[in-house]
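[Solved] Which block belongs to which protein?

Original post:
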Amino acid sequence: MPSPLSSDAPVELVVEDAAVGARLDAFLASHFPDFSRMHLRRVITAGGVEVDGRGGKPAYRLKAGQRVRIVLPEIPREAPKPENIPIDLLYEDEHVVAVNKPAGMVVHPARGHWTGTLAGALQYHFGPALSATGGPTRPGIVHRLDRDTSGVVLVARTDQAHARLAAQFAERSLEKEYFAMVAGVPERDRDRIDRPIGVHPHTREKMAIRTDPAAGRPAQTFFEVLWRFRGFAALRVVPKTGRTHQIRVHLCHAGFPVLCDRQYGGRARITRGEIREQPGDHTVLLDRQALHARKLSFRHPATGAPMTVEAPLPDDLQAVLAELRIYRQSP
């Protein structure tokens, strides 16, 4: 856990027009993403934050030109503690490891998640035989998935492998393929969404379509309909860029949000009764976003040989798919 407030010099921020009306805790979370909003609330409550020289409250709404002064807590700089958490290995050699990350697991320590991470599990299973390029809190981690997205994650075992894999991500020379279930049915069998993405103008922990060139970055997502159901669809999704929350933002913008995406889709779970149209059945089938990183194609960092790693569809998504096939077949 982070230590108490440090004795370092305070950081001062000026509230710009885009942040007017934002809560104080949300404003700070947008500027200091290594700290969870909950932790920053504790800092505010403990008197570590001032607004125009006065103590603030987490829910205080900011005004233009105000000066926010914070004494930042220290961030843990040591490697994550090794934790005996099972890992589903998809591929392993002396250069690279591919794992099937389960939904609900954070990739590396950040934003208040200091235990139960993939990084902690990797430390237990591989010890020092991981790349140090990402720093002590991200041993071997080349890229990440959202906590509630399952699927393929690549891990580098040497610094050289890390550099070569990271270059492929930067050059967009590897291909990521996702499986998604969505609420709503696309009209087209396949399409490309080309809309810029940036930080949401009012909710700083979210992303949004931003047409202002200064606020958004180019983002492209290709999708193909695998199966249509009444009110739902299953998609193959290939992001051409790697913006934060890209698939979730693009599909929501297109009118068919990822199923059970509480942040962008407006619902957190789906029950068996909803699919079967039996209101009395409240059995929860899915309580996380229906997004799975199914396949990753790349060049081996040592040999340059083309490789493809696939992660099987997890049980919760298979269960929803099975129900849709029985009870929601299109006419």
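(Second protein starts here: sequence line, then its structure tokens.)
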Amino acid sequence: MNNELYGIWYKHPSNITNSPLMAYMIRLEGIESYGLYMQFADMLHTVGGYQEYDFKKISLMLGHTKKNIKAKLERVINDYQLFEFYTDDDGKEMVGLERLKEDIASLNKHKINGAKGGKKRAENYRNKSLSKDSKPKTQIAKETPITSVETEAPEYKIASFFYNHKYRSQLDFLIKRPFSPRANQQVYKNYMLNTYPENKEEIENSI
């Protein structure tokens, strides 16, 4: 028998007081008998669903020493078919509730599966970390996205027909249709050439 304690919670039939056997016992023994039933069921849950049938030991475990309470407890356990009895391989008579044993088996299964799941998640995390640490620096650098790249400024090209126009025509064209910085520069250069023709060579070399 598994001696691990199961003290969190356990399931029991809903509206159990209205079941025929339980209702019959309560009518004969009073509502106190239901409390004795549940107290013993709670104890059975902590020991795996079944307990060796030693009534004196059970009474002491439940804390009942008064004669009348002990007598009622004995009737609750023995007279109303609310508990199951069997003899184990060592010849000991056992008393308990099969539904509690099944409930504990289910809890054990969930516990084992949860532990396996936790170990698997931990293993996956470990493997992922090791895989990341074992990558060469060059590979990590390749996988790292580049957030910013400096690029050279594009070269602006101006159509030849623009060069052939006078300053005023070029200026009107730019007002109606904004063009590139190089075009603006050309307009300014033409303006300077028209305004200061005597300084043509200097303007050509500087603008």
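Accepted answer:
You had them paired correctly. Confirming on the second one: Residues 82 and 112 are 31 Å apart (CA to CA).
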